[in-house]
Specification:
With about 90 residues, this protein is an all-beta fold. The protein contains no helices and 7 strands. A 5-stranded mixed β-barrel has the order 1-2-4-5-6.
Length: about 90
């Protein structure tokens, strides 16, 4: 099973795809998301969101804060400003 992940900024979708894990820094600490994770809504702190994409590639999104939502193996990261580095960046 995989996670469906979408990273969006105020202007556009920055990255989307399948992943095995997402790790993000929230205002309350770091959170790791795997398949089967409980529904969650978290406030992101400034920092990195790491997506371990399927196929062994990785994507790191630098955000200035925002929100992370998890529901039904779907992860949505929403931030005002996002920059993405790694394989598949800009997909």
């Amino acid at each position: 099973m995989t996670l469906k992940v979408q990273v969006v900024s105020a202007e556009r979708e920055v990255w989307s795809g399948d992943a095995s894990m997402v790790v993000a820094r929230t205002v309350e600490g770091e959170i790791g998301v795997l398949t089967g994770h409980a529904p969650t809504l978290a406030v992101l702190g400034a920092g990195e969101v790491r997506v371990d994409a399927e196929g062994g590639s990785g994507v790191t999104a630098t955000v200035d804060g925002g929100f992370l939502s998890v529901e039904n193996d779907t992860v949505l990261v929403v931030a005002e400003r996002v920059s993405v580095a790694g394989a598949g960046a800009g997909r």
